[in-house]
Amino acid sequence: MTHGVTSGLTTPEPRKRRVDEVPNFPLTSRDHEALRAAFAVLLSPLDSVDAETWRGEVGHTIGELLGADRSAFKLEIPGAPVLYSEDYSQSTLDDYMSHYHTVDLGRLRREELGLEVWNRWRLHGSKLRQFWESEIHQDFLAPNKIFDSMGLTINVRGASKPATLFFHKEKPGTPQFGERGVAILSLLLPAFKAGVRDAMRYSRQRDSLATHLDSLTEGIRICDLKGDTVHQNPAFTAATTGDPHPEKLERVIFDIVHELVGLTRQQSSALHALAGHRLVHEVHSSTASYEVRGSFLGRELLGAELRIVISLQRLAPSTTLSDKSLQERFGLTSRELEVARRLAQGESTKEVAQSCGISLHTARRHTEKVFAKLGVRNRSQVGPKLRAT
What we know:
With 389 residues, the protein is α+β, with helices and mostly antiparallel strands. The chain has 3 domains: 29-202, Beta-Lactamase (2-Layer Sandwich), CATH 3.30.450.80; 216-315, Beta-Lactamase; 323-386, Orthogonal Bundle (Arc Repressor Mutant, subunit A), CATH 1.10.10.10. It is built from 16 helices and 10 strands. α1 (29-42) runs antiparallel to α2, α1 (29-42) packs parallel to α8 and α13 (334-344) crosses α15 (360-374). The protein starts with 28 loop residues before the first helix and ends with a helix.
């Protein structure tokens, strides 16, 4: 993904300048706004849902600042493609990585010169004609209308390949890709290094966390704030697919997730205050009982936006106290005990009324008395109270 011009086109040589010299250019108020946006996206990889999203935002934001037509971002991140672009087809990216990366004269010159900020003139200078006649230009760049390019390249600790941010133009020798573009990229270089460092650190942490979650015997599902599943370990999958009535379990999980999502909307300006919040429900099917817990997983673990973690634990079948023990411990009447059992099974007040053959008003009254005697505030806390400790 280097750069080139067609062999029939020429561009005047710029004034000779040292490779490490950064030219100065006046910046307009619009340039300052664009630079602020570029710094913000470079330094915020953790605000993106995943590595691809961040790389796409980086390419788009800085590309607009430079006046680039297209961009691509090469970075070795676990579980993600090395070369990512929202402007090129995957087949084009694969062609480059599988063959043309090896014969890319621009890449070879970057490694030879040790350049972190580069454009066409910095890399090739008087050897441009040799570049125009090369395989990378003739067979890959020109057919894909890549007639000029510039970018950033840095070494990454723990990666076999440097990280490179490419910007491409469909016309050669544009002023934006000259000394002005070099000056802008030089300003952004420290932020690029910091962003790549954070993206790599948290991507490895996410990968390590996923591996750990998959090894647990307790079922774990991680959801985003839309309620969509981000990761689910094998134990969770086994529990939900092995139950003959998984819809009952999924309904409780849905309720927990959306209750937690509602809390984020209420406290959108202070999400850190939600860190210790947890919901616990019990679900009883014809074959098993489960404790379902929902809480928040902070970005310090996943390196992304706030997530919701649902844990699923199957309860032992012989943990429920006998009727006599419950009546002696909590002073429940026979009817209150029946209501308590049904509440623990997840029945609504209306369902309790229908099951017991009583009015809705009477069911509510019994429910209030059960809560008071058990010392609980909601039906999700009834089940744990009825089990032996």
